[in-house]
Specification:
The structure is a homodimer. By secondary structure, chain A is mainly alpha-helical. Chain A has a single domain, classed as Cytochrome c-like domain (Cytochrome Bc1 Complex, Chain D, domain 2). Chain A contains 5 helices and 2 strands. Chain A has a two-stranded antiparallel ribbon. In chain A, helix 1 crosses helix 5, helix 3 packs across helix 4 and helix 3 runs antiparallel to helix 5. Chain A is globular, with a radius of gyration of 13 Å. The termini of chain A are close together. At the A-B interface, helix 3 and strand 2 of A face helix 3 and strand 2 of B. Strand 2 of chain A pairs antiparallel with strand 2 of chain B, so a sheet runs across the interface.
Amino acid sequence: MLLLVPAARSTAADVAAGRAKAAQCAVCHGANGIATLPDAPNLAGQSEIYLAKALRDFKSGARKNEMMTMMAAGLSDADIENLAAYYQSIEISVKQP
Amino acid sequence: MLLLVPAARSTAADVAAGRAKAAQCAVCHGANGIATLPDAPNLAGQSEIYLAKALRDFKSGARKNEMMTMMAAGLSDADIENLAAYYQSIEISVKQP
């Protein structure tokens, strides 16, 4: 069974700016949001709301991870919204095994 | 550009047991690992290592979330490994916007 997951469209956030900013995330999370390391999550197609909360939680210290605490510290609120909008915009599909 | 992401195979963990256990996750994370709620992440195709750590962190309290703290409390170590293996086994593909 192949299911297409429609990528929800963002309103306020800037997907293009997020895509540019995401260059610094690509080493671990992949240029297309598919992680290159087993301890980093795929971000492609993930919900904007979930992703923005994760980044805010890393920035505030509510969620802890050595790498992400460091990376999130340098992000503005707009960066966070744009990054979340960018990763949400990547369309994914799933195939049940 | 369409990229197929090969689902890595698990060794020790039991994908079938994980799939059965995942019934309790489906309300929020979807029967196929694609979330039904914007504040819940997609789990399909996510790395076993990442997922197992997330569940252990929710269970230990290192990571906090009202719903997940409650759900993870009832999971054994084997449940966690099996669930992580199941969600990793779901093949995903991504299409750059």
